[in-house]
Structure formats: C-alpha cells, structure tokens
C-alpha cells in the first residue's frame, strides 16, 4: 500500500508550511544594532522627561480650595476630590467625627495605588499591597509604604469645607 504524499505530512505542517531554513535568522550584528537603537530611544525619552520637569516645574498648592459642604460627608465617611493645577491630583477628605477632618493625597507612597478610608477598622488602606495609614496623621501603620501620605490642611467656614497646603 502506497501512501499519498499528503498523508505522510502531518496536518499542522500542511497548514503552516514553513521550513527551518525559511525562519528568520538574526545575526549578532543586527541584534547589537537593535540594542543600540533601543538604548538611544530610551536615552532620548529620559532626556525629554528631565527637560519637561525642569522647564515646567509643578506649582505648589496655593490658597484655599472649596471642596464640599460639611453636611455632604457623614461622620466616619470619606469623600474623594481633585484639585486642578499643573496636574490633577486625587485627594481623600475624611470626616473623623466630633469636628475632626483630615485630607490626604489619595496615592499610596509605595506604588501610587489609590488608598481608601475604612471606617470599620479606623485606618486608611492601600488595597494593592495591604499598607495601612493612620487617618489622623497619615503615618504608616503597616505594610510596604516608605513614608506618610501627603496631607492638606482642612478649614471649615460657615458649613463649607476648604483645603489648603499644609503649613510647616
């Protein structure tokens, strides 16, 4: 019994008829050229970032910014807000009760994950890596964050909540 030539070749080889000699071969010289171009592109990108940061520095937060009405955030709850500036930064306003208010930058100091206030445990939590912060001071309680959360000063005037840059 003689087999047909198509029966001897597996189906997948019929569907993908690429010979080993047809495969792309990359020489060391071509690979080195690719690495050089890639390194050059990375250097140009890093230089652009440095030039941008030097030419357009971030402006510090100035003045008071109205956020919400005091009645809008119940005791033990939090409120997320943003302040428009040189870039938009998300913040977290927390009503700790008994007239005690705090506002923190909402980005974890570990890897910039969004933090949230958990009233049930009385801490600010970073859910990405289980980092916890003190809601009164912003200090690290547990986990990988290396430094406290940046804090804003909260001012209550005539039932309205304002924030401004923390004074030293």
Terminal CA distance: 94 Å
Mean pLDDT: 87
Shape: elongated
Strand order of the largest sheet: 1-10-9-4-3-2
Short description:
This protein has helices spanning 5-8, 11-15, 28-55; strands spanning 65-69, 78-83, 89-97, 100-105, 116-118, 123-126, 131-133, 140-142, 151-157, 160-165. The protein is of the alpha+beta class and 168 residues long.
Write structural notes for this entry.
- With 168 residues, this protein is of the alpha+beta class.
- The protein folds into two domains: 5-55; 65-165, Rieske Iron-sulfur Protein (3-layer Sandwich).
- It is 22% helix and 31% strand.
- It has three helices and ten strands, in the order H-H-H-E-E-E-E-E-E-E-E-E-E.
- The protein has helices spanning 5-8, 11-15, 28-55; strands spanning 65-69, 78-83, 89-97, 100-105, 116-118, 123-126, 131-133, 140-142, 151-157, 160-165.
- The strands form two sheets. It has a six-stranded antiparallel beta sheet with strand order 1-10-9-4-3-2, with no helix packed on it.
- A hairpin with a 6-residue loop joins strand 7 (131-133) and strand 8 (140-142).
- The model has no long low-confidence stretch (mean pLDDT 87).
What keyword list fits this structure?
2 domains, Rieske Iron-sulfur Protein, six-stranded antiparallel beta sheet, 168 residues, elongated
């Amino acid at each position: 019994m003689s087999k047909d030539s198509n029966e001897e070749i597996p189906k997948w080889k019929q569907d993908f008829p690429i010979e080993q000699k047809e495969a792309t071969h990359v020489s060391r010289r071509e690979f080195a050229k690719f690495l050089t171009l890639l390194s050059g592109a990375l250097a140009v990108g890093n230089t652009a970032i440095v030039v941008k940061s030097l030419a357009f520095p971030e402006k510090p937060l100035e003045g008071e910014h109205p956020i919400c009405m005091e009645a809008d955030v119940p005791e033990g709850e939090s409120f997320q807000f943003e302040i428009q500036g040189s870039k938009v930064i998300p913040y977290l306003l927390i009503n700790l009760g008994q007239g005690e208010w705090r506002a923190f930058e909402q980005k974890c100091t570990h890897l910039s994950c969004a933090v949230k206030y958990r009233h049930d445990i009385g801490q600010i939590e970073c859910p990405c890596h289980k980092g916890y912060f003190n809601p009164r001071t912003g200090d690290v309680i547990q986990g990988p964050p290396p430094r406290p959360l940046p804090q804003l000063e909260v001012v209550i005037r005539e039932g309205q909540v304002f924030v401004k840059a923390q004074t030293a």
